[in-house]
Specification:
Elements (H helix, E strand, L loop, with lengths): L1 H25 L4 H13 L1 H11 L9 H4 L14 H8 L6 E9 L2 H14 L3 E6 L6 H15 L3 E7 L8 H9 L3 E5 L19 E4 L3 E5 L21 E5 L3 H14 L18 E8 L7 H12 L3 E5 L7 H12 L3 E7 L5 H16 L3 E5 L7 E4 L2 E5 L5 H5 L3 E6 L2 H16 L10 H12 L5
Parallel strand pairs: 2-3, 3-4, 9-10, 10-11
Antiparallel strand pairs: 1-7, 1-8, 2-5, 5-6, 6-7, 8-14, 9-12, 12-13, 13-14
Helix pairs in contact: 1-2, 1-3, 2-3, 7-8, 10-11, 12-15
Length: about 450
């Protein structure tokens, strides 16, 4: 009977390899990634099949996502709508909305003050999504503020990424839940087949007050990001506050995330906020729950359309081949292409992988700025448009993780991003240090692994 068991095992493995190969060929991956997966399946099937089941699916559309995602007919947009807005609408995203108030929060202490003030102002609901909630005085104080509102009748819902917040303040969170708040962990390590995938993290950062005011951006809630007093070595980062009609898009995104994390839908109705300012904004989510890749493709489009400037601030520069080529072409066309990254980030492997990409762009007349501090902010300035939010300029953020960016169209808000970027670049010397042959070889090797870093 031993030969029969062996035969059945070979048949089962062969079937799983064949099925996995069919799925891979239908996923629309890059030729390099497709070939890598196929070789992995052929050479080491007993390891490749379970890893593919756990990590190989890039899109995981939710049954409720269609209901919670606004859509706009591109043909019904105003006559002066930008091409990029029309393109994003054809991906199924909502149109840009005017009448918003947008406050850029470049200072860590000011960002903390605004965050706490918003929590304290909540009257009916507080919806929060964070990748990192630190087990430190800042994370604990934030939990205490949420707990105070929960004890006063405010409905508090909190989503934490289970990997990003692995070292979360568990005692403070238990107290928060005892006060009536609801907590959900996104994609915990032990979960059922619909509980998420290990390689797809919820990297969004959002706080929504009463469904009408939003705090978002690149900052998580921990000492290295923000706090009530200055802290030596604190990271450079960016947050913003939105009040107005654009808040409804964040409400929809949170509702989709909440249900994916096992929460119950409260109401499908989303209130439309009145006009509170002059900012024109378009919310651009990205992730496995979004059909296709609108954020990635919008950035590629912006690179190809840029005429005068293309400035990027990111902690990790690991672009897709399409983005790398678009940046190189822009630099060769004479566009002022500038990339600002930290001289040394908190991810050593990502620093090794970025070297080959940065050196290639520098050879094409791109300008590389290395900031002496850790820079965690994420922003792209393309002529008179600006993207700010949670997505790093890397394949993982743009093609795998759950992210959300805000696309700014109005001159006042774009000018504010430009001033902040110019200040940051003035602090960062231009140019890459020379590298030995061995260093360049290592960078080239890690570049091959950049999509998973």
């Amino acid at each position: 009977m031993g030969w029969l068991a062996t035969h059945l095992l070979v048949v089962v493995v062969g079937f799983l390899v064949a099925a996995s190969a069919v799925v891979i060929l239908q996923q629309g991956r890059s030729p390099q990634a497709t070939l890598a997966w196929l070789l992995f399946l052929v050479l080491i099937p007993y390891l490749a099949v379970p890893l593919f089941i756990a990590m190989g699916f890039r899109k995981r559309l939710r049954l409720h996502a269609k209901e919670s995602k606004p859509t706009t007919d591109p043909d019904c947009l105003r006559a002066d709508a930008a091409q990029i807005e029309r393109m994003l609408c054809r991906y199924g995203l909502g149109a840009a909305s005017d009448g918003n108030r947008f406050d850029l929060l470049t200072d860590a202490e000011a960002a903390w003050t605004v965050l706490l003030d918003m929590v304290e102002s909540a009257q009916s609901s507080l919806d929060v999504t964070l990748y990192v909630l630190g087990n430190d005085p800042v994370g604990q104080a934030f939990c205490a503020a949420l707990e105070e509102r929960a004890r006063n009748g405010v409905a508090v819902r909190l989503i934490l990424d289970s990997i990003g917040s692995l070292k979360r303040p568990r005692v403070a969170l238990r107290s928060l839940r005892a006060a009536g708040a609801e907590l959900r962990l996104y994609s915990p390590l032990l979960h059922g087949p619909r509980g998420g995938r290990l390689n797809q993290r919820n990297h969004r950062k959002m706080l929504i007050v009463d469904g009408v005011c939003v705090w978002s951006g690149g900052r998580n809630v921990a000492e290295e990001y923000l706090g009530p007093t200055p802290k030596t070595g604190r990271w450079q980062d960016l947050s913003y506050r939105i009040a107005g009609p654009a808040s409804a898009a964040y409400v929809n995104i949170f509702s989709s995330d909440w249900m994916a994390a096992g929460g119950r839908m409260r109401s499908s109705a989303v209130s439309v906020s009145p006009a509170l300012g002059d900012a024109v904004l378009q919310i651009v989510p990205a992730g496995p729950d979004v059909p296709e890749d609108p954020l990635h493709d919008a950035l590629v489009f912006a690179c190809h359309c840029a005429r005068s400037r293309l400035w990027i601030v990111t902690p990790y520069f690991l672009p897709t081949p399409a983005l790398s080529e678009a940046l190189a072409i822009a630099a060769r066309r004479g566009v002022d292409v500038r990339i600002l990254v930290p001289e040394r980030s908190n991810q050593r492997l990502a620093d090794l992988a970025r070297g080959a990409w940065l050196r290639a762009l520098a050879r094409d007349d791109g300008h590389i700025h290395l900031h002496p501090q850790m820079v965690h902010a994420k922003a792209v300035l393309a002529d008179d448009l600006a993207f700010v939010g949670s997505a790093n300029f890397d394949a993982r953020s743009l093609l795998l993780n759950f992210e959300v960016m805000t696309l700014l169209y109005s001159a006042t808000e774009v000018a504010a991003v430009h001033r902040w970027m110019a200040t940051l670049m003035a602090q960062a010397p231009e140019g890459l240090p020379s590298a030995s042959f061995a260093r360049r070889s290592i960078e080239g090797l890690f570049r091959l692994c950049s999509p998973i870093l």
